[in-house]
Amino acid sequence: MTDSIGIILLAAGLSSRMGALKPLLQLGDKTFLQHILSNPFMSRDDVAGVAVVGHEQDQVRRFILPPIQIVVNPDYRLGRMSSIQCGLRALAVSVRGAMIWPVDCPLIPHRVLVSIMNALERTDRIIIPSFQFRRGHPPLIGSAFFSEIGQMKPDEPLRDLYRSHADALIHVTVDSETILHNVNTPEDYERICAYFVENRCGDI
Question: Scanning 80, 98, 135, 192, which has the fewest C-beta atoms within 10 Å of its C-beta?
Answer without folding.
Answer: 135
